[in-house]
Specification:
Largest sheet of chain B: none
Radius of gyration of chain A: 18 Å
Number of strands of chain A: 0
Number of strands of chain B: 0
Strand content of chain A: under 5%
Radius of gyration of chain B: 65 Å
Structural class of chain B: mainly alpha
Order of helices and strands of chain A: HHHHHHHHHH
Structural class of chain A: mainly alpha
Oligomer: heterodimer
Helix content of chain A: 55-70%
Number of helices of chain B: 13
Shape of chain A: elongated
């Protein structure tokens, strides 16, 4: 998120007071943010749109009962993360994983119950079109990917990440380190292979 | 080629990463006096974060268009949702409630409508589940080898006609009270040669009285051989004339008494010509207003018959 939506710019507080303009501005500016968030977690285009709409409508309906507790950004990402987990548990989504990724949660029953799979050709096409980092993200576990997404892309501090993901701050710090180290290794490995591929024999 | 740091290096890397994320990639607040190796590792993390953010925070053109379309959809379903129908429904509801409160007739009509709407599916259900009457006609032919449920009646042998075939006599025979009135009974009481001429002479008062008694009895028994009303009426007129003649003849008190009994019996059934003074006179001759019956009738007949015979 490029702008802060906390304290006096809290969209739900304003909406509860009858002012919808801040919520509309929040939707206008952050729709792309959440689309990218869900896409990087592994959702397809249509699935990501449904999830984003679901998140914003949940926020809209909670406006009358909303009590600001901490940063609004962390609250929104908690809603988004819960929507993602719910959709995966319902079997509506199956996160994309590359073979060899160290996602421990891939072995959980909820993953096995997921019935809707992204067709392999679409995955391959998306992977080809994505950048180096996006492709490297496929090697991270879901927990590492969430921490990386909130810390590096959304630039949330560790305490807010811990609040959004409902995990201890130390776990955030550890997951971030392992995520970046894995990414670094994958990117360096990719660079080496690219260099070897262009060298003349 | 990267090398894997030891535990101390890993701890320092965690600090570097936390500082770069917390304070910004450009100016992390780190303690001074970093070694060359630490500076190199810090720089490598900084480079990695810059590369990640430059790629992931950029908005591709396709995503921007998709986001714009999605933004309009979300706003249309939230803050810009058309809620005017709620107000219109509220107006309709308050109008209906007001009209229902004001009019008893409207409440009755509404209740009737509601009742019919509730009953309609119930009736439809029962109409649906009720079996239709079987309109198919079938005939079952009996088995020719099976015996019939009844045997064909054998014709009775023909017999000679007798007095027993007369329905009136059958009815009289079964009645204990009427047994004394049978002509057979009367004939048994008196030898045929003595009574015969009196019985067949229907024109004298005794014969008329007997005929009237028999015809009245037939009428009471409602038998198939009931005499016609005209015939009975003629006999009663003749009987009345005989009594008129006996009125002035004091020498025939027994005959007058017997004949008066037959006349009163006819009057007690509403038959004959109405003549109250004459009836009172008949009752005086009879000694009672009730007609004779049983042994008294037989004794009166015997006396009348002897009187006619001049005994």
């Amino acid at each position: 998120m490029k702008r802060t939506w906390d304290s006096d710019r809290d969209p739900l507080v304003a909406l509860g007071k009858g002012d919808a303009s801040l919520f509309e501005a929040f939707v206008a500016e952050e729709t792309a943010t959440f689309l990218g968030f869900f896409r990087r977690l592994g959702a397809g285009s249509a699935e990501a749109e449904d999830l984003v709409q679901d998140v914003f409508l949940k926020l809209f309906r909670q406006a009358n009962h909303y009590q600001p507790n901490g940063r609004f950004t962390a609250f929104v990402f908690r809603i988004a993360r819960n929507a993602w987990i719910d959709s995966v548990r319902r079997g509506a989504l199956r996160p994309q994983r590359l073979p060899g990724s160290d996602d421990e949660e891939n072995r959980k029953p909820t993953r096995e119950l997921a019935s809707t799979q992204v067709p392999p050709p679409e995955v391959a096409q998306r992977t080809e079109e994505a950048g180096r980092v996006t492709r490297a993200l496929q090697h991270l576990s879901e927990g590492q990917r969430l921490v990386f997404e909130l810390g590096v892309v959304q630039e949330l501090p560790y305490c807010e990440i811990a609040r959004a993901l409902e995990i201890p701050e130390g776990t955030v710090k550890s997951r971030m380190f392992h995520a970046l180290r894995k990414l670094k290794a994958v990117l360096e490995n990719t660079t080496t292979k690219d260099q070897e591929g262009v060298q003349p024999r | 080629m990267s090398h894997w740091p030891n535990d101390a290096d890993e701890g320092r890397d965690r600090e570097f990463i936390a500082s770069l994320l917390r304070d910004g990639v450009a100016e992390p607040r780190l303690p001074s006096g970093l070694t060359a190796g630490e500076e190199a590792r810090l720089e490598s993390w900084r480079t990695l974060l810059r590369e990640c953010r430059s790629e992931l925070q950029a908005d591709p053109a396709g995503d921007a268009l998709r986001a714009e379309r999605l933004r309009r959809r979300i706003l249309a379903a939230s803050t810009r949702e058309d809620l005017s129908w709620r107000a219109e429904w509220g107006l309709w509801r308050s109008f209906l409630a007001q009209r229902l409160r004001a009019s008893l007739l409207l409440r009755v009509v509404a209740a009737s409508l509601l009742l019919h709407m509730v009953a309609l599916p119930v009736m439809a259900y029962y109409t649906w589940v009720r079996p239709e009457p079987d309109t198919h006609i079938s005939f079952d032919l009996p088995d020719a080898h099976q015996p019939l449920p009844f045997a064909e009646a054998e014709p009775e042998p023909a017999s000679e006609p007798s007095a027993r075939d007369w329905p009136l006599l059958d009815s009289l025979e079964n009645s204990a009270d009427a047994a004394e009135w049978l002509p057979e009974h009367l004939l048994a009481e008196r030898p045929l040669e003595q009574v015969g001429p009196r019985v067949v002479l229907w024109t004298d008062p005794l014969g008329l009285a007997l005929l009237a008694e028999v015809l009245l009895e037939e009428g009471d028994l409602e038998s198939e051989s009931r005499p016609s009303a005209a015939r009975l009426e003629f006999v009663l007129e003749e009987l009345h004339k005989s009594l008129e003649a006996l009125r002035a003849d004091p020498t025939r008190p027994a005959l007058r008494r017997f004949t008066a009994s037959a006349w009163l019996r006819a009057r007690s059934r509403g038959l004959g010509q109405a003549d109250a003074p004459f009836e009172r006179e008949c009752a005086v001759w009879l000694g009672d207003s009730q007609p004779l019956a049983g042994a008294a009738w037989l004794a009166a007949y015997t006396s009348a018959d002897r009187e006619l015979a001049g005994e």
